[in-house]
């Protein structure tokens, strides 16, 4: 997330096809990526060449740019354009196709068109009148709410957003991957009263978050019908999606936040900390935190999700990079595990996709090795989510990466079966027809995959065993480890207050 694209090389045909998911994931999350794919020799195209596939055409749907250089001479110019396109405006993925016959072509050096690398992305600011309009709307608000999205994290706006929160005394709510832009333990964080904050806010300022499914499209019943939305985004086409904004601030979040700070300083605006809104939010936060605490401290075995996360929270390093995927594992993990630093949490993202966690963990650990040696990556997976790319454990061990994988194992997807119920059901006949399709094999020893490749594996069933395994893995963080935590297969999320709050979203 340093505003340079990631680069991925893939082979032709199936290699390219496997990367399409990654390109789509990058573009949908607004992350810069360049994929360079080999493809069949040009003179064999349409003849059924080895791994022939219409790659440029297929890449078009998932990329900001999908292109084959017309000759070897123009490759530098095409690379420059791809880098620029991936990071300018709304970031996204770009695909460059290199036919096999290019590899052995001879070119005259003097005919190669060298292009210097592009300038860093331009930083645009909002119209002055829009900034002043936004400030006036906010000054009249009785129940304001600031929503921080992952665009704010990407824009490195943490210092200015935090200043704004402190200066104006506003309640804020991070979206899942914006956690840590302002630390979750900041007194103005209302994540524990999320539903209430969204449902009753009369003015919302969006710092780089789309009003998509993650934010219930900005519509009732999650939001007030008359909510006034102040939208900050670098992408003009995003402004006004689903809800007509009361003010639009087109520009880079960090730069626009600075503009807002200046405007509010001029007006000496401070939202009163003793307002009715703050009182209601605080009561709700306290109640919700107590409910989670009650569940976390339950002594019964097998453990529930809240107990597991309670011990993980106490024992993992505060500055670790957290990767989180799974259904309940991700949803409950988001509420139970605080983030204190920006750009340290990766999850299923805008796509809500599973199977990306181990790849994210490997990429994060590789980057951290260079830039923040000693930083540990803690990757918390549901058992089903782990299954999508579990063999990446070999990659983790091959590179000896400081990654701790914790599998919160409920023998299934959403819920599973305990070993006895599984056996009973099998007596009825074929597992394909007798056991629920969401259940996975009970008591699977995923930790043995880690020990198979030389890392440390732990199978734990009690809080004490969990704490011992966590302690050992955090102390010896250089050795990859996997803790397989058996929980109650029927453990669920806290009961939601509203029936429409059953999806894995905010
Ligand atoms: P979240 O998942 O956190 O809700 P989204 O991915 O929906 O966030 O939204 C991120 C938004 O941030 C996108 O609309 C994107 O255009 C915007 N964005 C990305 N980088 C910047 C930036 N530097 N300045 C302003 N907006 C940005
Ligand atoms: Mg599971």
TrEMBL record:
Cofactor(s) needed: thiamine diphosphate
Family: Belongs to the TPP enzyme family.
Keyword line: Lyase, Magnesium, Metal-binding, Thiamine pyrophosphate
EC id: 4.1.2.63
Biological processes per GO annotation: fatty acid alpha-oxidation
Domain Thiamine pyrophosphate enzyme N-terminal TPP-binding residues, every copy: 3-56
GO CC, alphabetical: peroxisome
Domain (Thiamine pyrophosphate enzyme TPP-binding): residue spans on this chain: 329-485
Enzyme class: lyase
UniProt protein name: 2-hydroxyacyl-CoA lyase
Reaction(s) this enzyme catalyzes, per UniProt: 2-hydroxyoctadecanoyl-CoA = heptadecanal + formyl-CoA; an (R)-2-hydroxy-long-chain-fatty acyl-CoA = a long-chain fatty aldehyde + formyl-CoA; a 2-hydroxy-3-methyl fatty acyl-CoA = a 2-methyl-branched fatty aldehyde + formyl-CoA
InterPro entries: DHS-like_NAD/FAD-binding_dom, HACL1-like, THDP-binding, Thiamin_PyroP_enz_cen_dom, Thiamin_PyroP_enz_TPP-bd_dom, TPP_enzyme_TPP-bd
Lineage: Eukaryota, Metazoa, Chordata, Craniata, Vertebrata
GO molecular function: 2-hydroxyacyl-CoA lyase activity; magnesium ion binding; thiamine pyrophosphate binding
Domain Thiamine pyrophosphate enzyme central: 131-260
Keyword Metal-binding in record: yes
One Pfam family named in its UniProt record: TPP_enzyme_C
Transferase recorded as keyword: no
């Amino acid at each position: 997330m340093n505003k340079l694209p990631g680069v991925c090389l893939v082979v032709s045909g199936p290699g390219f096809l496997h990367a399409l998911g990654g390109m789509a994931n990058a573009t949908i999350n607004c992350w810069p990526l360049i994929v360079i794919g080999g493809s069949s020799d040009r003179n064999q195209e349409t003849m059924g060449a080895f791994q022939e596939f219409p790659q440029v055409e297929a890449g078009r749907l998932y990329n900001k740019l999908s292109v084959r250089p017309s000759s070897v001479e123009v490759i530098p110019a095409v690379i420059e354009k791809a880098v620029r396109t991936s990071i300018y405006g709304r970031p996204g993925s770009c695909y460059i196709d290199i036919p096999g016959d290019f590899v052995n072509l001879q070119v005259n050096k003097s005919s190669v068109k060298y292009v210097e690398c592009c300038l860093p992305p331009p930083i645009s600011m909002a119209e002055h009148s829009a900034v002043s309009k936004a400030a006036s709307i906010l000054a009249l608000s009785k129940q304001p709410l600031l929503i921080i999205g992952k665009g704010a994290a990407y824009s490195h706006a943490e210092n200015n957003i935090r200043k704004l929160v402190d200066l104006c005394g506003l309640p804020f709510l991070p979206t899942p991957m914006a956690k840590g832009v302002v630390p979750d333990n900041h007194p103005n964080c209302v994540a524990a009263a999320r539903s209430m904050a969204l449902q009753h806010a009369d003015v919302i300022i969006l710092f780089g978050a789309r009003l998509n499914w993650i934010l219930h499209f900005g519509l009732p019943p999650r939001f007030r019908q008359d909510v006034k939305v102040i939208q900050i985004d670098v992408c003009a086409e995003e402004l006004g999606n689903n809800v007509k904004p009361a003010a639009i601030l087109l520009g880079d979040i960090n730069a626009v936040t600075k503009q807002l700070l200046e405007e509010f300083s001029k007006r000496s605006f401070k939202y009163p900390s003793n307002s009715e809104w703050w009182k209601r939010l605080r009561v709700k936060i306290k109640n919700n935190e107590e409910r989670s605490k009650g569940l976390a401290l339950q002594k019964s075995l097998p453990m529930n999700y809240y107990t597991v996360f309670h011990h993980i929270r106490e024992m993992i390093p505060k500055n670790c990079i957290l990767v989180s995927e799974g259904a309940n594992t991700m949803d409950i993990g988001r509420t139970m595990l605080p983030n204190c630093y920006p750009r340290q949490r990766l999850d299923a993202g805008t796509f809500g996709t599973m199977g990306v966690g181990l790849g994210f963990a490997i990429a994060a650990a590789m980057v951290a090795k260079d830039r923040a040696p000693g930083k540990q990556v803690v990757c918390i997976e549901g058992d089903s989510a782990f299954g999508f790319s579990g063999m990446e454990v070999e990659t983790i061990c091959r590179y000896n990466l400081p990654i701790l994988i914790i599998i919160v194992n409920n023998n299934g997807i959403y819920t599973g079966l305990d070993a006895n119920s599984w056996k009973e059901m099998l007596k009825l006949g074929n597992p394909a027809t007798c056991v629920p399709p969401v259940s996975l094999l009970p008591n699977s020893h995923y930790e043995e995959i880690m020990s198979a490749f030389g890392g440390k594996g732990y199978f734990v069933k009690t809080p004490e065993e969990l704490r011992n395994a966590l302690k050992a893995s955090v102390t010896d963080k250089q050795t990859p480890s996997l803790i397989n935590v058996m929980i109650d297969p029927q453990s669920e999320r806290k009961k939601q207050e509203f029936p429409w709050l059953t999806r894995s979203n905010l």
